[in-house]
Amino acid sequence: MASPKVQIDNVQLLKKMKRLEEVTGKEVASSLRRGGRLLAVNLAYNTPPFGRSVKDTKNAEGDNQASSLHMGENALMRDLWRLFYVMGIGRIREIIDFQGRETTMKYGHKGAQPLGDVTEKILTRGGMRSWHEARRGANGRVSKARHGVTTGHRIKDLQNLDKGIVTQEYLESYYKERVKMVGLSKAGWAACIAKMDLTESGVKNIWAGIPAWVKRHISKAPSAVSDRATAMLPQIKLTSKIPWADKVMSESDYREALRITREKFLASMDKEIRATLKKAVE
Fold first, then answer.
1. Are residues 74 and 175 in the same domain?
2. DSSP letter at 124?
3. Dihedral of the CA atoms 50, 53, 55, 56 (nearest 10)?
4. CB-based burial label for 111 (10 Å; 0-12, 13-18, 19+)
5. Are strands 84-86 and 102-107 parallel, antiparallel or unpaired?
6. Residue 49, preceding bond cis, omega within 30 degrees?
7. What does the alpha-carbon distance between residue 203 and residue 19 come to, in Å, rounded to a whole number?
8. How far apart are CA 45 and CA 264, in angstroms?
9. CB burial string 120-142: b at 16+ within 10 A, e below
10. Cα–Cα nearest to 23, from 251, 272, 247
11. Model-level pTM?
12. Which domain holds residue 153?
């Protein structure tokens, strides 16, 4: 599912928005865009990293988004530890003098045809990114490889058995560079908010529910919004164009985000209708 698209065009929602328009005077188009913003927030929230394992890390909206940031940072560190092996500079120099920067070994069952080659390479700081990128899966993560085990591996698994040797200084520097990208997957949906006309939506803070560590990526996160809120059959379609967006969330995740959005949106409109009618009879 390349460039995942999620849309709001539910008949039940449309009926409720028309009722809201009758009672409050708020146009269907502005209400639908408000629902589109809510959907973008829920999609961003449901996109990894997410979690509630860190206590006392609520943001200004009272949400546990900060724990999601920590989980993303920890996932990155786990990936790097799977790819890189830290050595002191003295030991690295000894290896270079003895066998050079790179060695290749055959890998497979003892006495059987080798499955392929496994590489051990001393990396420069500049070479760490290409080493990392070459070993990331379709979802952007690095698969856990079972070192020292020859059973069950496939040829495509071998590159995750490669050992990139670096200094502690290089690893810390590279981590600081990459950790700034945590939240980019979420930003593909958050960026849709900036493309909606929310001036008449009644939303006080359009970025509520989107933490700062996601907002920092919005300017460079590719996305698209198809706004047909004023059409005979109103519809808003959101698209995240992050290259790996279809790999980090399942179809059930998208459906869950849409379900939550529908329930929250219906509840908020019901509340607004009741409040307006109550005020009218007072």
1. yes
2. P
3. 0
4. exposed
5. unpaired
6. yes
7. 19
8. 14
9. bbbbeeeebeebbeebeeeebbb
10. 272
11. 0.74
12. 70-179
Q: How many CB atoms lie within 10 A of CB 22?
A: 10
By CB atoms closer than 10 A (0-12, 13-18, 19+), residue 87 is middle
Same domain? For 171 and 75 the reply is yes
Domain boundary among 145, 179, 213: 179
What is the C-alpha to C-alpha distance for residues 209 and 61, in angstroms, rounded to an integer?
7
Cβ burial, residue 259 (10 Å; 0-12/13-18/19+): exposed
Joined together, the tokens standing for residue 99 give 């066998």
- Side chain identity, residue 219: S
Q: Are residues 187 and 117 in the same domain?
A: no
What tokens were used for 237?
Answer: 């379609």
Match 């408000």 to its residue by tokens. Answer: 34
Listed residue (240, 180, 275, 247) closest to 39, CA to CA: 240
> Distance between the two ends of the chain, CA-based, in angstroms?
52
Tens digit of pLDDT at every position of the chain (282 positions): 455 666 666 778 888 889 999 999 989 889 999 999 999 999 998 888 865 433 434 444 444 556 888 888 999 999 999 899 999 999 999 988 988 898 887 776 655 666 777 788 999 999 999 999 888 887 778 877 665 555 556 666 677 788 899 999 999 999 999 999 899 999 999 999 999 999 888 888 999 999 999 999 999 999 999 999 888 888 899 999 998 888 888 788 888 888 888 888 899 899 999 999 988 876
Which of 161, 179, 197 is the endpoint of a domain?
Answer: 179
- Do residues 46 and 192 touch, judged by C-beta distance below 8 A? no
List all residues 6 or more positions away from 150 whose beta carbon is below 8 Å from its beta carbon: 107, 108, 109, 110, 115
